[in-house]
Amino acid sequence: MHRLISVTVLLAVLVGAAASARAQSPTLQAARQRADALSSAGNLPEAEAWAKKALDLAQQELGAAGLGTAISLNTLAHVYATEGRAAQAEPLYRRAVSIYFQTFGTFGAGPNTSAAATAAASHAGLGDLYYREGRYAEAMNNLRAAASIYERQAGASATSGATESGRLRQAHELFVHYADAAQHASASPYIGSVGREQAFAAVQWAQASATAAAVAHMAVRFAAGNDRLAAMVRERQDIQNEMDALNQRLEHSAGLSPAQRDVAGYAADRQRAAALQKEADKADNELILAFPRYSELANPLPLHIADAQALLAPDEALLAYVVGQDETVGVAVTPQRYEAHVIARGAAPLAGAVKMLRAALEIDSPSALPPFPSGTAFALYRDIVAPFAGAFTDAKRLIVVTDGPLDSLPFAVLLTEPPAKETIAAPAELRSAPWLAKRYAVSVLPSISALQSLRKFASASRAPDPFIGFGDPLLDDHPKARQRGVMVASVYRGGSVDVAALRELPSLPETAAELAAEARLFKASSGSVLLREAATVTAVKRADLASRRIVAFATHGLVAGDMGNGEPGLVLTPPANPSPDDDGLLKASEIAQLRLNADLVILSACNTAAPDGTPGAEGFSGLSKAFLYAGARSLLVSQWSVESDSTVALMTGMAAHLEEKGVGRAEALRRAELALMDDKDHPQFAHPLFWAPFVVVGEGG
Fold first, then answer.
1. 305-449: in CATH 3.30.420
2. 260 phi and psi angles, rounded to 5 deg
3. CATH for the 7-196 domain, from 1.10.10.10, 1.25.40.10, 3.90.1720.10, 1.10.300.10
4. Going along 267-383, which residue ranges are E strands?
5. What pTM did the predictor assign?
6. What integer best gives the mean pLDDT of the chain?
7. SS3 state at 343
């Protein structure tokens, strides 16, 4: 069943509870909040009583045409809709829309964001009602009206920072519903291509993320055309990043009581935010004159279907998903075809299936390999890939844009044919299985628009030198050290890195040979590999990374803590005298400050595709986002803890294939995977936990 969008959530996205409650008595606010809470808890009879009370109070205090009355109308309408009483909900939603029009005269043009959010909630409610009744064209139009408010909010900024991406992500479910309704409506001969284009656009709005913004920011610097403009763009983007971080701190502080708040720190943050805004305004004015297309490129709008098709090679297919609570909308694009489908599997069942699959790819000992859940791998292929397979029968390269639980799905290990058994374990069974990797070279993008950013604006690197690598950090090999399961939380103490804990990690001497082999294959000069004492955070920061087309790290990768306590990072040699600038861990925030001009960054370490650790973080938001922002066109990152010997074989194999004419990054990885799978000297390598941990993020061609 298509679940109703929460009116409360939609209101909070743009304006927050405080803004939407202005000029309303505490009694009215309490009644509405009580109705919302009871409705969310499923106690609909009591929710209805409180919603009616809130509406009566609103009309008494604010009048029949007050904006606060429109909010209360939405609250009661949402309760009715949840109860299945569409005939009673519809006129309330319509009346709320009418109040907005009476106040501002035209949809979405009013200066009051609280009113705009109220109108969005009203249209979203109507859209859901019509969807449930099969009135898809009317549902599409109303959901489009609601979505346009969030689109305007994102498009109003010259630089798409975390604030704009965050607003769009909060409205994610709305965009999923909109894409769903538009796709259903496209079956009508009167809607047709209009519905398809709207569904495609809604999918792209739903994919808004900080990682996608990082790709756009990287690409616009390369599109600037000269070093001076690129430096101006980078300065403006760095200002925006600091503003976003400050805004998050200020919002957190504003929610604290005076006793809890750091008054001096809060005042300093407000003063710094004001100064940054002045710097941003000045930079924007300079960029408007020097680089008129800056705003357009830094904050790209959704692509039309034909534009996306024009970006694809004849043997490529783009497969993109947005995952809602109750359904998933997917689109497939090739140079000749476009298909979209609504998949009747939402976030929870997909997360359960992906978790079951991933459980077979995380082990404590290579001598105790878990059986692979072949039934689950095929079921996922059947549900989320097979519906589109007819669109890309001639494709050899598959570009995937994931969302929600699909962010952690290794597409290469899906099975394209029904298995004879629900689990397989023997090397011969694993080797002969119909893996998706045998059909397609797979790469991942954070958004559909990233394809344009990478292919139109971020041309191939012209860096003069081929390669630089860092690895084999000098560690103590403490006897109690464990290579697997390391979390950043375990090396942070009071907000600082515990250098002693870093030193206790096991050494990785085999990474020296791995990097040396890559340097030879890429024909790098002597001194291009920095190991042990030379592999430090300071060395990375001082290196001329912008002159290298490929940058590689072979070391331990640490993921962020579950609640954001600490950053993801790469372990390098801890210095004898640690400092805030070099404590042995190259953190994501430091990576984002690097200046790269790389076609490929290789992160030969555990879990380097992991998110940044903040609650609800999107996929690839940790090290991946940082390196993309720093200037990497593509990354090779791992999705789980990797085994060292197989990783060395994969990395050197991929490097060798990259030197073959006409072989792209994703195809080079695929060939290395198939070779490892068929390694007769190491039959255990046929298990996908050895050959499938890495994925190409970004430009895979």
1. yes
2. -85, -25
3. 1.25.40.10
4. 316-323, 328-333, 338-343
5. 0.86
6. 84
7. strand
